Amino acid sequence: MPWIHYHVSDNGKVKACCIANIPLGNVNENSFEEIWNGEPIQELRTKFLKGEIDKRCSGCYKLEEAGGKSIRQETYEKFPEVIPTEITVKEKPIYFDIRFSNVCNFRCRTCWHGASSKWFQDAKKLGRNLGEKAIINNINDFNQFISETGEALKGAKEIYFAGGEPLVTEEHYLLLDWLIENGITDLQLRYNTNFSILKFKEYDILEYWKQFEKVEVLGSVDATEKLGEIIRKEFNWELFLANREKIRSFENINFKLAPTISILNLAHLPQLYKTGIEKNIINTEDFYINILERPFYYNIKAFPIEKKRQIEEEFAVFYEWCNVNTIQSSVIESFKECIAFMNQEQLPEKYWTQFLKETSVMNELRGENIGLF
What residues pair up with 193 in beta bridges, in sequence order? Predict the structure, then answer.
């Protein structure tokens, strides 16, 4: 990925990807060239060309060992024409992942203030806030960022927007304006979004999306109805269904359900998928799974053994349903990847105890009862 991917993260740090904490520079302090062909990224490319393992990439390695597909593998499947052979890169990145800030309108249980401004008040009550401001900006000056990165963006094949929540982030719309003004619309826009707002201030996202060749929308929905609304606080199941209908006529938009898999929703996953098919929310193949690793008390490896066995039995029934309904093997495999990841190791019992404590704290804080255990 360090040959094709440019990821802007917290406080302007450019990292190797959104998972591994491998800093390559900072857009608020370094030029694009200093980052893209600087010493940190060159060292990483050298290591990868030698076939060496970087311990900071353990998240992907563990997922691959469990039989899952990592972001690294997905990226090179998406861009098979890229074959790294040299350390120095004369070309620009073709895949961008830009996180402008932590601005978000949800308080998902598995999230935190660093990734959601809406979490700020709850975080203060729990003593987990980062500073005294809700909004944490990653890019200090949008125009300066464009002046440094614009030439590279002109060659982009895909730009990925995630959160915070991109559809309530103004800089995201400013970037779309810049792309349209420069005639850069023959690329894919890819979103991880809670899909709760289609109009923000004076911006109408549907008016933007119709101007681009391809748009992939990954709807961040962890469960249906009430459970989904508790896991992702401020989520409204009926509003989500209504917004889904509003894009049905757009031929350039591909919509997928993209749950984050945690202790909170793994057992419900088959029901989410079946509901997605029954309500025509997605086509049978449009289900994208993201397995949470941290915090460990939400990691599905922390389930007690007896709970793991119970979930396996429930998934076996789901596989039978898939076979009867001729669901693609790739979908079944993605569910099996969750089970393989869950069984890859048994996390210490302290994390299950911590999960139960955290759930009790959040239930009391928000006046809810998630009612799972």
Answer: 219
